[in-house]
Amino acid sequence: MTLSEKQQLFVQLIGQLIEWAGTHGYRLTFGEAYRTPEQAKLNAKSGAGIANSLHTQRLAVDFNLFINGQYQTSTEAYTPMGEYWESLGGAWGGRFKSRPDGNHFSLEHNGVK
Length: 113
What we know:
Order of helices and strands: HEHEEHEE
Number of strands: 5
Largest sheet: 5 strands, antiparallel
Structural class: alpha+beta
Oligomer: single chain
């Protein structure tokens, strides 16, 4: 699958995730979607990310989650969404070993999640 085809699939799957979240009482706003390679390098240098982030490939998005009007910051609050996303074939940041990132939803590419 080409990068372009994977990006198109990612958008379709994110649409399904957003729809699922809405029907389950979750409200979302977008956090970071696209990240420049320069910003990814700066994030990696500061320990806040990795240089080869899937955000730079347009294969990752961070969401802001609201439940009953309350902004959620814990990875645990994102677990139902993360599990649904995984059932669609995506990679959820809540499973990251070094630093769980519950609001991160991506599609693996070239071994990067």
